[in-house]
# Entry
Amino acid sequence: MDELRDLYQEMILDHGKNPRNQGRLDGSTHAADGHNPLCGDMLHLMLTVDGDTVTDARFDGQGCAISTASASMMTDVVKGMSLHDVKQLVRTFIGVATGEISPDPAELGKLAVFSGVSEFPARVKCATLSWRTVEAAISESNDPITTE
Amino acid sequence: MSTNTDRTIDVEAIRRDFPVLERKIYDRPLVYLDNAATSQKPQCVIDAVSRYYAETNSNVHRGVHRLSMDATSAYEAAREKLQRFLNARSTKEIVWTRGTTESINLVAQSLGRSKVQAGDEVLISQMEHHSNIVPWQLLCEERGATLKVIPMSEQGDLVLDAYEEMLSDRTKIVAVAHVSNALGTLNPVEHIIERAHARGVPVLLDGAQATPHMKVDVQALNCDFYTVSGHKMFGPTGIGALYGKEALLDAMPPWHGGGDMIKSVSFDGTVFNDLPYKFEAGTPNIAGAIGMGVAVDYLEQVGLDAAAAWEAELLEYGTALLNGMDGVRIFGTAAHKAAVISFEVRGIHPHDLGTILDREGVAIRAGHHCAQPVMEFYGVAATARASMAFYNTKSELDALAAAIEKAQDLFA
# Structure
């Protein structure tokens, strides 16, 4: 059960059950869709960007605890960040989730709870879906993001 | 090999035939409950494939040398085994394919394109696997035809009154699952076939989930086409077959072109080979066919009636066990079912459940089971599915229930 506890830490279970920033965002300036065709997870992400700063973020959709918690915490964290910093954090998060970079708590903050995901290769896509979707939203790509 | 006509099976002895069942997953015994995705292979099938490559490997139907003759006889002997197993009239009616998906595509592309015109209709059902939806969608789009869907009830039974109303002069083919992969429903295919035939409409049965669990007699069913996958019935992956009534297959144009499906080729034209070779272009999966033949031998040795009786007991036990758990809901409660239990656990997404069960050594499927219209019907994105074979035990179902309880504790 130890690895399971590493994956399903309290914070992930909490955000999975009670996701923050869920619902439509009126007046959003950026949006993107993310889809995991293997499990049917769907995510619609909306951002308000003022100048170079993300001022608000919300998401809609359905998914497992990992992908829901990831979207919940991602939308919390990116608020107030510059687009450049968001892009940087996307790379770091994906690197940590895939086990390619070892987590630096100073850089990741509470997102470090996702480092356990790298021990579960089948679930890495659940954790990274919202991050790849935010990257698409700020790159203003019109193509929906898919994990496959 | 002898055929077991006894109504009981020795599960412990059978388990010893399947080497993978000895495996430990994270130091726990493997509890394999994902048989509807693919079944495990007995040692005799593994040995047959390996022995073919070690001793007989050669191309079929073309060599004058000894190895090629040996490979050809083993390959054709496997076809005869499958013919007898399905009770087809002759080996001309057994076309090797890569599996059910390819078999359905063959019929959709060959029969479909020669028969289905603009304004015609193809009937499938709400509970089909994607492999019995998409080939017909492609055909209907190409021909300007309409795909009609036989509805199902909340229990997961086809609504037969609606089916009969849908049959019309525009219906050109009916294609339905014998057994649903997502719900386990055993469909009343005799009735479906009888009603279609009354209007002269041919019927294809997707038998991928039926042949591992029950005796199938294509002549008694009187279906026009029947599709099987080797890997679902304890044989290798990448091999399967299409059964088709000879007169229908004979009238159908070839699908894939290439070697082996021709009698002679010139730039002015080609004379196609006889059945079943007309539909078998290119070097086939020889080892796969031989392995599937041995899987058929194995199934007959175990005895499908005895296997079905044991699986019915497992289904009853597992259904009662899961129904007795708080927060567990079973999807698909048809009166006639194969040993498949599709379910959800309140508050736990099937993928999270799948991960937690995996750490307990319990392998289930979590997802849409390549049957998204079924998920849509029940208003869920995914379900968890435990699907059994005759080598499963009641104590493995206890392990499933215990693992679900652990997941509930973790998510409490």
